[in-house]
């Protein structure tokens, strides 16, 4: 694998880049990365398979949470109760 | 139309105030109820918590700047009510040690456990209830940050305000919460035979 060759070529650099990447990946997933962070992260995950896999898994977890957890319907009496309470108290 | 909003609002009649309250805050009841339910894991408690949130919001309506982030404001009130009134009586597992959480992410080492071997295929086979069970198994502070970020789509800055913590803490807590969630999901996938 390319990633393995890279590791052997420049192990120290690679590890610190991966550290930086793994600490900042959430910024990319959450749309919070600055332009320079985005550039670094996108380039790194394009070249580094383990980091790409981390990114892909975390991105999927986020999507699964959003798409699969069902919304609870608001109880039909709740809005009326709130309005009653507001009228009583204010 | 260049008048100070603050001044206009103080002169509102009760009817006008009610109309604005209704227009800005009531449409958010769905998100609030779901947040309350995910915190308390109980429908009656969620009901009470949302009622209390709206009563407090009405009481403090004057300190709310119109046109600003109504959703974040209400979520903050709800979260504080939960901590003050509900958390005490709930049987939550022991409080999370943030010292440990924070020092965990101040270290530069890549934690090996970050690369959980949870498979994306397993994840996608899971149904909503199973995913929710894994989320519910997290300590409430970790659960909260995931709800705010992933279910409600708040920004880090908004979460910092809702939770009264620095953005750096939002990041480290979110990071830790996601790793814990992946462990729960993986354990769940394992027992369901998804991870084979
Ligand atoms: Zn890497």
What does this structure look like?
The complex is a heterodimer of chains A (90) and B (196). Chain A has 90 residues and is mainly α. Chain A has helices at residues 2-9, 11-29, 35-47, 49-68, 78-89. In chain A, helix 1 packs across helix 2 (11-29) and helix 3 crosses helix 4 (49-68). The termini of chain A are far apart. Chain B is mainly α and 196 residues long. Chain B is elongated. The A-B interface holds A 15-16, 18-19, 22-23, 26-27, 30, 32, 50, 53-54, 56-58, 60-62, 64-66, 68-72, 74-75, 78-79, 81-82, 85-86, 89-90 and B 14, 18, 26, 29-30, 33-34, 37, 43, 46-47, 50-51, 54-55, 58-59, 105, 108-110, 114-116, 118, 120, 123-124, 126-129, 131-132, 135, 146, 149-151, 155-156, 171, 174-175, 178, 181-182, 185. The structure holds zinc ion (ZN). Zinc ion is lined by residues 17-18, 21, 44, 48, 50-51 of chain A. The site of zinc ion has 7 residues of chain A, from helix 2 and helix 4.
Provide the succession of SSEs of chain B.
HHHHHHHHHHH
CATH class of the largest domain in chain B: Mainly Alpha
Measured by DSSP, the beta-strand proportion of chain B falls in under 5%
Number of alpha- plus pi-helical segments of chain B = 11
Mean pLDDT of chain B: 84
The end-to-end span of chain B amounts to 65 Å
The dominant shape of chain A is elongated
Low-confidence parts of chain A, pLDDT < 50 over ≥5 residues?
A: none
The CATH topology of the largest domain in chain B corresponds to: Rna Polymerase Sigma Factor, Chain: A
| Portion of residues within helices of chain B | 55-70%
Q: How many domain regions of chain B?
A: 2
What proportion strand of chain A?
under 5%
Quaternary structure annotation: heterodimer
Radius of gyration of chain B: 20 Å
Our measurement of the CA-to-CA distance between the termini of chain A, rounded to an integer number of angstroms, reads 69 Å
| Mean pLDDT figure of chain A | 89
CATH superfamily of the largest domain in chain B: RNA polymerase sigma factor, region 2, helix turn helix motif
Question: What is the general shape of chain B?
Answer: elongated
**How many helices of chain A in DSSP terms?**
5
Q: Helix content range of the residues of chain A, please? A: over 70%
Pfam families (chain B): Sigma70_r2 (PF04542), Sigma70_r4_2 (PF08281)
InterPro entries (chain B): RNA_pol_sigma-70-like (IPR039425), RNA_pol_sigma-70_dom (IPR014284), RNA_pol_sigma70_r2 (IPR007627), RNA_pol_sigma70_r4_t2 (IPR013249), RNA_pol_sigma_r2 (IPR013325), RNA_pol_sigma_r3/r4-like (IPR013324), WH-like_DNA-bd_sf (IPR036388)
Protein name (chain B): RNA polymerase sigma factor RpoE
Domain RNA polymerase sigma factor 70 region 4 type (chain B): 130-179
């Amino acid at each position: 694998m390319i990633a393995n060759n890279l590791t052997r070529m420049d192990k120290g650099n690679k590890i610190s880049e991966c550290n930086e990447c793994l600490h900042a990946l959430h910024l990319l997933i959450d749309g919070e990365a600055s332009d320079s962070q985005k550039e670094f992260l996108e380039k790194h995950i394009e070249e580094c398979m383990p980091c790409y896999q981390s990114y892909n898994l975390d991105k999927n977890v986020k999507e699964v949470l959003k798409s699969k957890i069902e919304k609870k319907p608001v109880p039909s009496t709740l809005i009326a109760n709130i309005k009653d309470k507001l009228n009583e108290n204010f | 139309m260049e008048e100070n909003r603050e001044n206009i609002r103080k002169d509102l009649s009760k009817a006008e105030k009610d109309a604005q309250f209704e227009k800005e805050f009531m449409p958010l009841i769905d998100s609030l109820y779901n947040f309350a339910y995910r915190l308390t894991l109980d429908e009656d408690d969620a009901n009470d918590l949302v009622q209390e949130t709206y009563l407090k919001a009405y009481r403090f309506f004057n300190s709310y700047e119109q046109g600003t982030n109504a959703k974040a404001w209400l979520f903050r009130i709800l979260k504080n009510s939960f901590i003050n009134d509900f958390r005490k009586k709930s049987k939550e597992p022991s409080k999370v040690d943030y010292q440990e959480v924070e020092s965990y992410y101040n270290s530069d080492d890549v934690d090996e456990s970050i690369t959980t071997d949870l498979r994306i295929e397993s994840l996608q086979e899971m149904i909503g209830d199973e995913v929710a069970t894994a989320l519910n198994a997290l300590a409430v502070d970790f659960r909260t940050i995931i709800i705010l970020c992933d279910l409600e789509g708040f920004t880090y800055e908004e979460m910092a305000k809702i939770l009264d913590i620095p953005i750096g803490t939002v990041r480290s807590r979110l990071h830790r919460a996601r790793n814990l969630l992946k462990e729960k999901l993986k354990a769940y996938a394992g027992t369901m035979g998804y991870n084979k």
